[in-house]
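Recap from last week: sequence in, structure out.
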Amino acid sequence: MSSESKAANSNLKWIAVAVAALALIGFLGFRYYTARQNALPEGIASGNGRLEAKLVDVATKEPLRVLKVMVDEGAMVTPGQVLVTMDTSTLEGEKTEANAKVAAAKERLALAEASIAKSSSERKLATTEMKRTSGMLSDNAASQREVDVRRAKVGTTQAAVDEANASLETAKREVEAAEAAVTTIQTRIEDATLKSPITGRVLYRLAEEGEVLAAGGKALTLLNLEDVYMEIFLPAEEAARARIGADARITLDFDTSKAIPASVSFVSPEAQFTPKQVETKSEREKLMFRVKIQVPQELAQQYLERIKTGVRGEGYVQLDPSVPWPQKLQDLVPAKPAQPAQPAQPPQPAQPAQPAEPAPPAPGPGG
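Predicted structure tokens:
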């Protein structure tokens, strides 16, 4: 190989090295620029987490058989919506028996009232006869013995009235107790219809038709989509500066162009090791403090259909209120405007009646 060829090959190698060096410098410069752009200012802390919602169990109060499950997993539910009905045949039988006891107690009450009326009449008659006999005694028309007998009769009838009154009060208490038993059984029957206490989504369907659930047995587990939050873990220094109610932001991995406005609702008083499913920038060996970032209920209500728990993201906490949010966290998820009420249509004026057209003249003879 000639010296000219060797020199040309050497030049090409130097050019390739220079190009590679320039590419490396450009790449490192881009990484540095990106890191600077994404770097958080002092006073803003962040941590990775996932979107979560409070779990609500729908359970039966007493052991009953599942009659029908109205919803499947993933279904949206609203407060008061019937989700599960239980077989209440036994409770209906108890209610029938309790109603019979109410009827019997009312009959005893009626008998007690009739007994009072009878005893009162007998007392009134005995009192009248005693007064009449006492008057006859002064005219020597009756003996003292007869007066004493009439007086004893008054005492006996008064005792009968008192006894009847006591029986009446007892009968009233029996009626109240029997009616209370009916009300209790009716409440148990109503409680056997399991309704949704929240607005949310069915996470787990835990019972099927025909199964017998024990007292407190869970039929469904719901996600309360109005109680949405993210938990992040911060080191002690940052957690100590996080205030309850402090402004916060949430971004989700699948779309980081919009930030969700939130606030700090809880800071754990106890340190713990970061759970394995949560990736943080800090070392795992360090103890961290759990911080809960709550999404406003009003905003969550507007995006119920789009909320999906378990979605990964990052939470940010404003440790210093005077530090402004970075530009990437200022573009917030918009609140949906309320639907304007449709204006009432003004009443249309009545159309005047059209005059009837005159009937054509009857044709004449031969016409």
